[in-house]
Amino acid sequence: MSVAALIVAAGRGVRAATESGQPKQYGRLGGEAMLTRTIRAFASHAGIDAVLVAIHPDDADLYAAASKAFAGRLLAPVMGGARRQDSVRAGLEALELHGPDVVLIHDAARPFADDALIARVIGGVGEARAPCPVCRPIRSVAAGGRVTGTVGREDLWRAQTPQGFKFDAILAAHRAAAQDPTLDFTDDTSVAEWFGLDVALVEGSEHNRKLTTAEDLAIADEMLRTEEKRAATSIRVGTGYDVHALGPGDAVILCGVSIPHTKKLVGHSDADVGLHALTDALLGTIADGDIGVHFPPSDERWRGAASDLFLKVAGDKIRARGGEIMHVDVTLLCEAPRIGPYRDAMRACMAETLGIDVGRVSIKATTNEGLGFVGRGEGIAAMATATVKLP
């Protein structure tokens, strides 16, 4: 079964004229013409064998620019007529030379038809069936700008395109309708129903909305730009772990805060296990080695150094790549000292060092239930997780 798509793009779209005065189907959505997006939906679909576009005679140059990316995959455009049904009939007459079994007729002003919707319409075409995608209508009806009542929705639907047909049947229907100039149909299933074809309903899509007004275009454009920015963003998660032994002393430094204690952490720098683990986690999000690569213990420059220096460098490296630190989480494993009284000071210190809101900093603590080197009070360990957004 061969399937053709006929895209109707011959209207003037006066309710959504662009700033340059171009018809709406050539207005920009997410940096490209609306018609480009509509064509792509069908030209890239595995179930579509041919695509033809009906355009206005004045839009040849605009169409050439909008369809350039699909050169070689589209049939030559056909010039549309004064009414939508005239444009559709012109397109069907042109398609007859290619002999498709099925045709899907679609409005250019619906650029968000997806693969699943197109497949449902193709699958709904039968010997005497013309599938029309539909969605439920709004609840209330109005007259003169005022709500006049609520209509039961069981038998009411909002029709969408693409609408699918056996090619010979819909061509015959349009030819018959053209014999009476007083007949004016809003869509092709209306023509089919008038001609006696059986119209069936298939599930539509709320995303497949028709862009009618200038506000519709502006909203769709903003939506697409937001989605594309989100799609162009990579979320990275890095983890870190560090441990230092406890030795003679009177304070430990954890997450940038000095805490009175009967011992101190032993290390080349200030031995802040919390910041060391977090530094490794941050470096992990950009695949840039670990703390030992950038600040080797063999380098005397780092003897006794405050570990917030290491953390700041890791944060700066992320920002240098256009990244944003979304969240950091450190878990301290120790029997003593108690972490709770110092938690807020630790969060504030880390937030300031990284230049992020303190609401993005989490610190937790747990004991080791007396087990292992942590449980025996021989050392303190830390685990860290960092979440980073990168372009």
UniProtKB/TrEMBL annotation:
EC number of this enzyme: 2.7.7.60, 4.6.1.12
Domain of life (superkingdom): Bacteria
One MF term in the entry's GO annotations: 2-C-methyl-D-erythritol 4-phosphate cytidylyltransferase activity
Marked site: Transition state stabilizer: R15, K24, H268, T367
Residues the record lists as binding 4-CDP-2-C-methyl-D-erythritol 2-phosphate: D242, V243, H244, H268, S269, D290, I291, G292, T366, T367, N368, E369, F373, R376
Residue ranges, annotated region (2-C-methyl-D-erythritol 2,4-cyclodiphosphate synthase): 236-391
InterPro entries: IspD, IspD/F, IspD/TarI, ISPD_synthase_CS, MECDP_synthase, MECDP_synthase_CS, MECDP_synthase_sf, Nucleotide-diphossugar_trans
GO biological process terms, semicolon-separated: isopentenyl diphosphate biosynthetic process, methylerythritol 4-phosphate pathway; terpenoid biosynthetic process
Record keywords, A-Z: Isoprene biosynthesis, Lyase, Metal-binding, Multifunctional enzyme, Nucleotidyltransferase, Transferase
Reported function: Bifunctional enzyme that catalyzes the formation of 4-diphosphocytidyl-2-C-methyl-D-erythritol from CTP and 2-C-methyl-D-erythritol 4-phosphate (MEP) (IspD), and catalyzes the conversion of 4-diphosphocytidyl-2-C-methyl-D-erythritol 2-phosphate (CDP-ME2P) to 2-C-methyl-D-erythritol 2,4-cyclodiphosphate (ME-CPP) with a corresponding release of cytidine 5-monophosphate (CMP) (IspF).
Name by which UniProt lists this protein: Bifunctional enzyme IspD/IspF
